[in-house]
Amino acid sequence: MIRSALPSDLPAILHVATGISLFDATQLHELEAFLGDYFRKSDSKGLWVISGELPLVWVAYAERERMTVGTWNLQWIAITREHQRQGHGTSLLEYFECALANLGAHQLLIETSASLTGSLAFYCDCGYQKEGRFRDFYEVGADKVVFREVMIFDRRLA
After folding, report:
1. 13: exposed, middle or buried (C-beta count within 10 Å: 0-12, 13-18, 19+)?
2. Strand locations in the chain, DSSP E?
3. Which of 23, 61, 69, 134 has the largest count of CB atoms under 10 Å?
4. How far is residue 106's CA from residue 84's CA, in Å, rounded to a whole number?
């Protein structure tokens, strides 16, 4: 089951983030502050979703790109290590594509680190097209790769 994240999910989301070992302590602190802001603001332009039951299997966040019409960016996706390669990521992307089409999206962007070869292959396998690479984006030697999927409007939810 997929559902919107609630403020009470904050500890479980941070637990998933810690478990995937991609973030240092400073980044985890920034994520916690970001989530706190997200839950306090009723006008948030983003969409946090989680696996519906505890313990969480995955979490993800997408937001509308500012100053665009219909462009969204999947900013963050994390699937616990023991649940990877079981179809959760594919289901999650399909969910976002439908949900965002219902919100008027015409394209979804996804960014990831060039060093995450499994993620790069996954997005390609899901039909996303590689749009660009930003050298030294995250830090010197850590490039960002951007993928794009054009929304197909017959994916809209009933």
Report:
1. buried
2. 2-4, 46-51, 58-64, 71-79, 107-113, 129-139, 142-150
3. 61
4. 28
Residues making up the chain, counted from first to last: 158
Question: Which residue segments constitute the domains of the chain, with CATH numbers given?
Answer: 2-155 (3.40.630.30)
Tell me how far apart the alpha carbons of residues 59 and 62 are, in angstroms, rounded to a whole number: 11
Q: Are 60 and 49 in contact (CB under 8 A)?
A: yes
Asked whether 110 and 73 are in contact (CB, 8 A), the reply is yes
Residue 106 CB contacts under 8 Å (≥ 6 apart), including other chains: 69, 70, 71, 150, 151
Per-residue pLDDT of the chain (158 residues; tens, 9 = 90+): 788 888 888 888 888 888 887 788 888 898 888 888 888 876 667 788 877 677 888 888 888 998 998 899 998 888 888 888 888 888 888 888 888 888 889 999 999 999 999 999 999 999 999 999 999 999 999 999 999 999 765 544 44
